[in-house]
Design goal:
This protein has 31 helices and 24 strands. The chain is α+β, with helices and mostly antiparallel strands. A hairpin with a 2-residue loop joins β22 and β23.
Length: 876
């Protein structure tokens, strides 16, 4: 009854229902297949629509994600020298930052881009662009303070007339690494050399973009399975090939005559059959050997390398791309960077042509990483590209690094001739307002003075004032033809103490004269300090001599102040009147009486109470150097005039060109040099009475610093320390830096805006190269040719160099300025501006000056004369 229930209820058994559905399913499949065959185009259109929709959605999301990218620019210091571990850690940061994207961002947008760009503004700009979420991670680098990370703005390029594009892919064995390039020299050096001759004025541009993203796991596993399968298949083929060769060898042996004879001798003919051959077993495939760099997931990334070069001149972009291609060959090893595309005759089909160009432009603009090949590399292979240029990189000098010198431009100061990597030569300069102090070192005849002369002549033609101090006078005739211009002649003065020629002309100067508006105590201090520096006086070794000389100067300066206020500057006393003041009681009494109201109480008290107690021999140390000056007719005539013409403060303020030739390096010459140097220091410091904006720039040039500093070491050192404040900028030249006094040497090196060296001995050059970190080394500088220099310069607040510069030669750089026919007129004008007169005439005037002063003083004595001071001896 129970078994018949299904039939009684009208339900068919399950087996019958299943047997009925199977033919129906088959029939449905057949009908569906027939419909697809008949209407295949509908299915194709549906598939295409789904694919297109998916592509559009992915591209939209990728564009949206790319719009949220940030950019950082890394600026390395001169001493940036990272280690392999630091660079590797930076690579890990880049790989991690590539994933700092929203979950919905497509893989192509999950990348970090390294941009190496050269457009003329710098040798190679190093930028990092990536997801905005990775900015915090990328801003703090393992390179430390030697690299400055700045937030970068988007770069906008002007359209160029000629543009070439290229995409580089990895060729060679896919599991083999790129070549391991050492860090010294810098791996970026070939790329920088490739763009070293870039010319911004021609619109040249070169840029390399390296996109880095983490390797996709599924694709990597599929690739590993393929590689392992290929390796096993290769092993089996090798085993089969070896088996065939073994069998062939065995068959060949059994068929040979020797083997048959052996069988006959052994009596085994026809017995035993052929011997058994055991085929070789396929070798086990080692995964590390088969997979190579793809064996491990750690630090494996996928990269994309795009290059674009542009220029407004035909052919330069193509040549630049070829240079970059050659530079990338340096990284080639078992794997190498090769340009994608193929060449047909003179045409190349690649990223510049259809169909690749559109995809290239999209990836270039949006920063998408979609390499046509996997391009899997380990971070260790990218060591050279994961950091900015290091200290081991030789950077070219671009037009933006050092401005080009232009004749007549008052803002530029000529430095030399730079020969670029492409062989072009250009005159380079620094900005005058930044070139505060210069130091030139090198052997005699190496070109130091020639370079200084070229710089001074260029500055003079630009309207600047200067003072050229040359103890040997050789620079004056060398510069004459190039300064012999009508607009320069009224500004040039020659102070020549060499007294050369049959009828020597000589200017004059009264170091203690007051006719030029000097401050009395400054004149006394400057003159006393000059004597003290040459003679070695100080408060410990010669306190009495220093006191006597200072007191005498105070009296004579007061006398001169009285004469100038009376309108009689020709009746002023000179330095030679110190002897009369100390040894002639009548002259001393008259002088002290005439100026009693001008002296302070302490000075008057010294002359009344202390001076009479001094022994006669106390004056010898003061009078001896003055006697030497008086014995020399040149110095007697130069310093013995009451109202000298020489006025360095007036020369500074009126942009004069003053040539000073002290005449030698003997004791008397050193004293003259010390007086001139101390007066210059006094005059410069007196500019404090002028607002800073109204101070006229002035440039003293000191040739043969060894000679000059031997006379006034502390004075020269003070110049290099103080003059910047008053817009007076010193240029010094010397053969040996080590022979300069320590204060001068320290001040020179500490404050030098420009430090230059020609050839010389290695021991003499070593102090300069040490300031450059011995790059270049002393032996490199010592081997320089004549007129060649290594120098470091300051431009826009940063140091440039050391760079090799050819010193300017006057006959070449200023050939158009030479006026040899006007040399005589210039020399006469320079004598006239300096108030020069024949030596004999000045000598006679100096000898009669004591009489003039003695006659002037009684006429201006007060109504009640002071007490007559008699010199009393302390010991009978």
């Amino acid at each position: 009854m129970d078994s018949a229930a299904p039939y009684l209820t009208g339900q068919a058994p399950a087996s019958a229902s299943a047997s009925g559905r199977v033919p129906g399913l088959v029939l449905g499949i057949v009908h569906t297949a027939g419909w697809v065959i008949a209407y295949w185009w509908i299915a194709a259109l549906a598939a295409v629509a789904v694919w297109a929709t998916g592509v559009a959605v992915v591209r939209h999301l990728a564009r949206k994600a790319s719009a949220e990218r940030m950019a950082l620019e890394l600026v390395p210091s001169r001493h940036f020298d990272p280690g392999l571990e630091e660079i590797f850690r930076r690579g890990v940061q880049l790989a991690r930052a590539s994933t700092s994207m929203p979950w919905w961002a497509p893989r192509r947008s999950k990348s970090v881009q390294i941009r190496l760009r050269a457009d003329g503004s710098s040798p190679l700009r190093y930028r990092i662009e990536g997801p905005a979420g990775g900015e915090r991670l990328l801003s703090i680098t393992p390179f430390g303070p030697t690299v400055t990370v700045n937030r970068a703005r988007p770069l906008v390029d002007k359209p160029r007339d000629h543009v070439v594009r290229a995409e580089f892919i990895l060729r060679g064995k896919p599991t083999a690494p790129l070549r391991e390039v050492p860090l010294n020299p810098d791996p970026l050096q070939p790329l920088i050399d490739a763009v070293s001759d870039l010319r911004a004025e021609l619109g040249d541009l070169a840029e390399i973009r390296l996109d880095i993203q983490r390797a996709p796991k599924l694709a990597l596993r599929a690739r590993r399975l393929q590689l392992m399968s290929d390796a096993r298949r290769a092993e089996r083929r090798e085993a089969q090939r070896a088996t065939r060769w073994v069998r062939q060898d065995a068959t060949g042996i059994e068929d040979s005559l020797t083997w048959q004879l052996q069988q006959l001798v052994a009596g085994k003919q026809g017995g035993g059959g052929r011997r058994l051959v055991v085929p070789p077993v396929p070798r086990r495939v080692d995964p590390e050997e088969a997979l190579g760099k793809l064996a491990e997931d750690d630090h494996l990334v996928r990269v994309q390398l795009l290059v674009m070069c542009a220029s407004n001149t035909e052919g330069r972009a193509e040549a630049r791309l070829a240079q970059l291609q050659a530079a990338l060959d340096v990284f080639g090893g078992g794997s190498r960077w090769a340009m994608r595309g193929w060449r047909v005759g003179p045409w190349r089909f690649g990223a510049d042509r259809w169909p690749s160009r559109r995809g290239f432009e999209r990836r270039w603009t949006l920063g998408h990483c979609q390499p046509p090949r996997p391009n899997w590399v380990r971070l260790e292979e990218l060591t050279g590209l994961l950091k900015p240029p290091t200290t081991h990189c030789r950077l070219p000098l671009l037009a933006g690094d050092l401005p080009t010198f232009e004749h007549g431009d008052p803002e530029l100061l000529l430095q030399g001739i730079y020969r670029g990597p492409d062989g072009r030569r250009r005159l380079i300069a620094t900005y005058a307002k930044e070139t505060l102090f210069e130091v030139g070192v090198g052997k005699a005849g190496g070109g130091k003075t020639e370079r200084a002369l070229a710089q001074a002549i260029g500055w003079a033609h630009a309207g600047g004032g200067l003072m050229f101090v040359d103890p040997h006078r050789d620079s004056w005739p060398r510069a004459l033809p190039f300064l012999a211009h009508d607009h320069l002649m009224p500004r040039i003065a020659l102070i020549d103490l060499t007294a050369s020629g049959p009828a020597p002309q000589l200017s004059s100067w009264n170091p203690i004269g007051m006719h030029q508006g000097q401050v009395a105590h400054e004149v006394v201090e400057a003159t006393a300090d000059a004597y003290a520096s040459v003679l070695g006086w100080d408060d410990a070794t010669a306190p009495r001599a220093l006191t006597i000389f200072t007191a005498a100067l105070a009296v004579l300066v007061a006398v001169n102040e009285t004469a100038c206020q009376a309108g009689r500057p020709e009746d002023q006393a000179t330095i030679f009147h110190v002897r009369s003041l100390l040894t002639d009681p009548d002259f001393r009494t008259t002088a002290l009486t005439a100026i009693e109201g001008r002296l302070d109480e302490e000075t008057r008290s010294w002359w009344r109470t202390v001076f009479p107690t001094l022994p006669t021999d106390a004056f010898a140390v003061v009078l001896n150097p003055i006697a030497r000056l008086a014995a020399n007719p040149v110095t007697r005539a130069f310093l013995g005039q009451p109202a000298g013409i020489y006025n360095i403060r007036g020369a500074m303020d009126s942009r004069m060109i003053v040539w000073v030739c002290p005449g030698g390096n003997g004791p008397t010459d050193r004293l003259i040099t010390a007086l001139l140097a101390r007066d210059l220091l006094r005059a410069v410091r007196s500019r404090r009475d002028t607002p800073e904006a109204q101070r006229v720039p002035f440039r003293p040039y000191f040739d043969e610093l060894i000679t000059l500093t031997g006379a006034a070491p502390e004075t020269i050192a003070a110049m290099f320390e103080d003059f910047r404040k008053y817009k007076v900028h010193v240029h010094g030249m010397t053969q040996l830096l080590a022979r300069l006094p320590i204060p001068v040497r320290l001040s020179l090196v500490q404050n030098a805006s420009t430090l230059a060296s020609t050839a010389g001995s290695q021991s003499a050059i070593a102090p300069i190269t040490a300031e450059w970190g011995d790059r270049p080394t002393p032996d490199v500088v010592a081997a320089l040719d004549r007129f060649e220099h290594y120098m470091s310069l300051t431009v826009e607040g940063r140091r440039v160099g050391p760079v090799r510069i050819t010193g300017p030669h006057l006959d070449n750089v200023f050939a158009d300025y030479a006026r040899p026919g006007q040399v005589g007129a210039l020399e006469r004008a320079a004598w006239a501006t300096a108030g020069a007169a024949p030596l004999d005439q000045l000598t006679d005037r100096a000898e009669n000056q004591l009489t003039r002063v003695s006659a002037f003083l009684p006429q201006h004595a007060p109504a009640q004369p002071a007490v007559h001071l008699q010199k009393k001896r302390k010991y009978k």
